[in-house]
UniProtKB/TrEMBL annotation:
Protein name (database record): Aminoglycoside phosphotransferase
SUPFAM superfamilies named among the record's database cross-references: Protein kinase-like (PK-like)
Residue spans crossing the bilayer: none
UniProt-listed InterPro entries: Aminoglycoside_PTrfase, Kinase-like_dom_sf
Record-linked Pfam families: APH
Domain Aminoglycoside phosphotransferase: 39-256
Domain of life per record: Bacteria
């Protein structure tokens, strides 16, 4: 598995301290912890316990993440839905992050390359659940992750004051646009960040859907747009979105709100680089490439970020 970019020694020390304090509080051994992925979240494998710890930044995310764990456990246990499962360990909230614990799913090397149809199959199943979840879900808020990152004071992103003001205004404009669209698919349980990179191989070699941080109640089109975004921005091409549409049973590109959601997804993709750009050259380059293209209306494909397979 490729190693993540660890150019930022101060950030790594802070992550390590947060992780070890949380593990000590829950009696989980942290010896030999290995960073698997670090973008918006930091994901560690804890080999002594053979589980995963996810560090989600922010000082007000604990309730949302507890609801997420309750619902993913319900999906797996009550509906046999192939979702990654939480470990039976309570989350730990700190001033800067919430640490949640999950089962570990070791991935083959090289990492699997799922098809868009694999993602479509799982989303179709998720979207057709006709039973309300056991925990109340927050309503989907467009660009919540980016808005949170922009207001997170520890972030020192390489954007000028004028660029940051423009981006905040754009977030508000696009949020209003997306909230006022006439969505054609029903509202219901949505994953919130449903792209193929969040598919993992399970113990039976089937695919699991992971990374549930943005689970919400909202329009189902939100789970479809990442596939069309990958086709355009990451060079997957028309066959990628066509295969998804054939499996899911709906062609999102024919809907009048398609361009609005595609632009929204562009902005979503700033979140991870924004959180890491001040301390990682790779994320700095990624943020500048994406931000400059969005502001200029440049449709040129972006460089895909390959941090290695996640495991939750």
């Amino acid at each position: 598995m490729p190693h993540p970019d660890l150019t930022a020694a101060p950030a790594a020390v802070d992550l390590d301290t947060t992780l070890r304090d949380a593990c000590a509080l829950r009696g989980v051994p942290a010896d030999g912890a290995r960073l698997l992925h670090h973008s918006s979240n930091a994901v560690f494998h804890l080999p002594a316990a053979d589980i995963v710890a996810r560090l989600t930044p922010g000082d007000n995310v604990g309730d949302r993440l507890r609801a997420t764990q309750s619902i993913t456990r319900w999906l797996a246990d009550e509906h046999h839905f192939p979702a990654t499962r939480p470990a039976d360990i309570e989350p730990v909230e700190t001033k800067t992050a919430t640490v949640t614990f999950w089962q570990y799913y070791p991935q083959p090397n090289p990492a699997p390359d799922p098809r868009s149809a694999d993602l479509a199959r799982l989303l179709r199943r998720l979207h057709h659940l006709n039973q309300a979840p056991p925990t109340t879900l927050e309503a989907w808020v467009p660009l919540e992750s980016l808005d949170t990152a922009l207001h997170d004071t520890p972030i020192k992103a390489p954007l000028s004051s004028e660029e940051r003001r423009w981006l905040l205004d754009e977030v508000n404009r696009v949020r209003d646009d997306c909230l006022n669209l006439d969505y054609h698919l029903d509202r219901g349980l949505i994953h919130g960040d449903a792209w193929a990179g969040n598919l993992l191989r399970g113990h039976d070699d089937g695919y699991l859907l992971g990374d549930w941080d943005w689970l919400a109640w909202g329009p189902r089109e939100i789970d479809l747009i990442p596939t069309w975004h990958a086709a355009t921005r990451y060079g997957r091409g028309a066959s990628w979105s066509a295969a998804f549409a054939a499996e899911y049973g709906y062609d999102l590109s024919s809907w009048h709100g398609f361009a609005s959601l595609l632009h929204m997804r562009d902005l979503v993709q700033l979140t991870g680089p924004l959180r890491r750009a001040a301390t990682s050259n790779r994320h700095h380059h990624m943020l500048r490439q994406r931000f400059d293209a969005i502001r200029a209306g440049d449709p040129t494909p972006w460089t895909a970020f390959q941090p290695g397979a996640s495991t939750t």
